[in-house]
Amino acid sequence: MLNEKFGKVGVGAASIGLALLVGGCAPEASADSGDTAAATPAHAMADATVDATLAATIAETPTIKVYKSPTCGCCALWVDHMREAGFQLDVENTDDMIGVKIDAGLPLRLQSCHTALVGDYVFEGHIPAEVIARFLAEKPSASGLAVPGMPVGSPGMEFGDRVDPYDVIQFDAAGSMSVYESR
Length: 183
Hints:
Elements: H1 2-6, H2 11-23, H3 42-45, H4 52-60, E1 64-68, H5 73-85, E2 89-93, H6 97-104, E3 115-118, E4 121-125, H7 129-138, E5 144-147, E6 167-171, E7 177-182
Parallel strand pairs: 1-2, 4-5
Antiparallel strand pairs: 1-3, 3-4, 5-6, 6-7
Helix pairs in contact: 4-7
């Protein structure tokens, strides 16, 4: 599917890139595998505040399928962030994240540690819940959003008060990418 949407990409290169990203994940920080909600720091939830329109979008959104490594703590924290915002999630721990990303048609340069799917949309990495809600409310003709890498200060990647600037990238099946929002 990746070859059809974005041209040939060596799986070896994808493996190396993903290994570097996933290797940076901390062991589970949640009390479990991320399959149930757990306590999340209050400063992490500040970004999850949404207005009534976005809250309605979240309530109407079908269950989001999240694929993550079983040992990744930052992914579990992002799952907690999404649940705290009101999204319903079906979390699947897998050791085949590369296969998930290829099947989802995710461009190599946008990959991060976890992948979420809802409808025809792909959400990659540590995207704030309210950004996903706004995107779903707008229903753009795009494939999805991504926060490449694992920027400090993004949901699930909190480190004290430090917040590194990052972009949320919108992408489509033709390979076009643009900044959806800067944080």
